[in-house]
Design brief:
Strand content: 15-25%
Order of helices and strands: EHEEHEHEHEHEHEHHEHEHEEEHEHH
CATH class of the largest domain: Alpha Beta
Number of strands: 14
CATH architecture of the largest domain: 3-Layer(aba) Sandwich
Structural class: alpha/beta
Number of helices: 13
Distance between the termini: 38 Å
Helix content: 25-40%
CATH superfamily of the largest domain: Ureohydrolase domain
Shape: globular
Length: about 400
């Protein structure tokens, strides 16, 4: 695939990498698609940054298509990590004559990157771009878990309406369907129709209120570790930390909390794409929000460099195994604890005819608290939810 025909190169002279200290910054370590350098080779690449300035389906946030270069302005000026990942910046995707044209090309690009085991970092643009991200997995026939950080649940109310506030319904209803699970954290109840909450529950999707996650941010780590595709709507961050959004709210995650959550995504061996959406430079104050997202991307790369390659279905010998009997042996739950990272997983029974289809999903990331719940003769909620999905 000739990627160069789909992307506009970066104009390097619009960005300044060196400060007064005249030392190396991330902009020097990235392999950037530019007029001066040409399109970089994908050989040996770990991560690819893709700007997608699509905003034609944005709701109350016109101007978010300007975000990619604004984020780069701050990202390029951060110091590199001691250890290095090979990061490409592919430039900005050329927008199609129609929105569907943009989605189609982006899905093809992402599919090709996934086949080459390169992680796309998408700089949006409006939030429904993650629907095109999902279609990239569809193009390679991979059943996935999607994970969103968002202040609302973008299910919409009318199936015929598709925009940044309703794209999730299109993902759920698309056939054949490759969405095994959808998890969302950070939603604020007054932004969510009760019927939408009921629908999420009926689909065995997981959703967690902002306050619940903020009680102990570490409890979000197993949720994120289970995700293939991660999306971040900037509206999930409080307005004082991220003013650059037409739908900003006084409440939400703090900027440092977002960075920690995104680092969890980077640490996960399963996470193979992430996108940042709805940042609108027209509302930004002194580049505050763009700077914050640049920090979050830095932390994602930092998490990636920490990966332990301990996704358990590959090497079970690297784990301690625990059997816990529940309800007078009506269920035996098998737990695995990684010897490399001390992280936990639990096994969900899966019939042999479904094992190939759900190979990447029958081992569910969990916490030590889930193990203690089982020891107290209670079935962990996440185990039960996954079990119900397996038996549908």
């Amino acid at each position: 695939m000739d990627f160069s025909i789909y992307f506009d190169p970066i104009k390097i002279d619009e960005f300044t990498f060196y400060g007064e200290d005249n030392v190396e910054k991330l902009g020097h370590t990235f392999l950037i698609n530019s007029l001066e350098r040409g399109f970089p080779s994908l050989d040996g690449a770990n991560i690819a940054i893709i700007g997608v300035g699509e905003e034609r389906n944005a709701v109350n946030n016109s101007g978010c298509g300007l975000a990619p270069n604004q984020i780069r302005k701050y990202l390029y000026n951060l110091f590199p990590h001691r250890q290095r990942a090979r990061v490409l910046d592919m430039g900005n995707l050329k927008l199609g004559n129609s929105v569907e044209d943009t989605y189609h090309v982006l899905a093809e690009v992402i599919a090709e990157l996934l086949k080459n085991r390169i992680i796309p970092i998408i700089l949006g643009g409006s939030n429904e771009i993650c629907y095109a991200n999902y279609r990239g997995y569809e193009n390679i026939g991979q059943i996935i878990n999607a994970f969103a950080i968002d202040s609302g649940i973008d299910m919409g109310h009318k199936p015929e309406i598709f925009n940044s506030k309703s794209y999730l319904m299109s993902m759920v209803c698309r056939e054949p369907n490759y969405l095994f699970n959808y998890t969302q954290i950070g939603y604020q109840t007054y932004f969510v129709d009760p019927d939408t909450s009921d629908l999420m529950e009926s689909l065995y999707f997981e959703s967690y209120r902002l306050g619940k996650i903020q009680e102990n941010l570490d409890n979000a780590e197993p949720l994120i570790r289970n995700a293939d595709m991660v999306s971040v709507d900037i509206s999930a961050v409080r307005q004082s930390d991220a003013p650059a959004n037409g739908n900003a709210s006084p409440h939400g995650f703090y900027g440092e909390e977002l960075c920690k959550l995104v680092r969890y995504a980077g640490m996960s061996d399963k996470c193979s794409s992430i996108g940042f959406y709805e940042l609108n430079p027209r509302y930004d104050r002194d580049g505050q929000t763009s700077h914050m997202v640049a920090h979050a991307i830095w932390y994602f790369i930092d998490g990636y460099l920490w990966r332990k390659q301990d996704f358990p279905y590959k090497e079970k010998d690297s784990y301690r195994k625990f059997h816990v009997a529940i309800h007078n042996n009506s269920h035996i739950i098998v737990f695995y604890k990684s010897k490399k990272s001390d992280r936990w997983w639990m096994e969900v029974p899966c019939t042999s005819d479904k094992l190939i289809k759900y190979e990447r999903h029958y081992l569910v990331p969990c916490s030590y608290d889930d193990y203690k719940t089982a020891l107290n003769d209670e079935i962990p909620d996440r185990w039960l939810m996954a079990y119900n999905k397996m038996t549908i």
